[in-house]
Specification:
By secondary structure, the chain is α/β, with parallel strands linked by helices. It has two domains: about 70 residues, 2,3-Dihydroxybiphenyl 1,2-Dioxygenase, domain 1 (Roll), CATH 3.10.180; about 80 residues, Roll (2,3-Dihydroxybiphenyl 1,2-Dioxygenase, domain 1). The chain is built from three helices and eight strands. The protein has a four-stranded mixed β-sheet with strand order 1-4-3-2. A hairpin with a 4-residue loop joins strand 3 and strand 4. The protein is globular.
């Protein structure tokens, strides 16, 4: 199959993260990113619910605009949310990865805001089985609700052309 862009699918606009407490999550993501929310509002009703396959919905939300992606923080009031937890190896699990220039400085930032990483960061080496991307550093952590998050200091094919 040819590597052609499909109109409208070459850029990401946002990632939505469902949370248990909007205010607590706003504080976390503002501290993590150093960016204040741009908007806080509430949306819902049967019309909105139909876009999600629901009968009715009410969602409190906030938006954070990063340089290349927006984060929508969503607290569902209706229907009553259910807690779930995904490990990175589970099918349909997703994670949000933040690109950083310096993995050590990013780890210090996590410690400053009280975040405990899943483990120590690693730097990709030939023994990891990669053909390229050596020197790329990664670490994983979670937000207050257990959402899978990652930091990456990319090299080689992991580095975007416009970064």
């Amino acid at each position: 199959m040819a590597n052609t862009k499909v109109s409208g699918f070459s850029r990401a606009n946002h990632v939505g993260i469902t949370v248990s407490n909007l205010e607590k999550s706003i504080a976390f993501y503002e501290a993590l990113t150093g960016t204040k929310i741009s908007n806080k509002d509430e949306i819902g009703g049967p019309r909105m619910a139909k876009t999600q396959g629901l009968e009715d919905t009410r969602i409190k939300y906030a938006n954070i605009h990063l340089d290349n992606l927006n984060i929508d923080i969503l607290e569902y009031v209706l229907p009553t949310p259910e807690k779930t937890s995904y490990q990175n190896n589970q099918i349909s699990a997703m994670h949000l990865c933040f690109e950083v220039d310096d993995i050590a400085a990013a780890m210090e930032r996590l410690k400053e805001i009280g975040v405990e990483p899943e483990g120590e960061p690693i730097v990709f080496q030939p023994e990891d089985g990669l053909k390229a991307g050596f020197g790329t550093a990664v670490a994983y952590f979670r937000d207050p609700d257990g959402t899978n998050l990652e930091i990456i200091a990319p090299q080689g094919p992991f580095k975007r052309k416009n970064s």
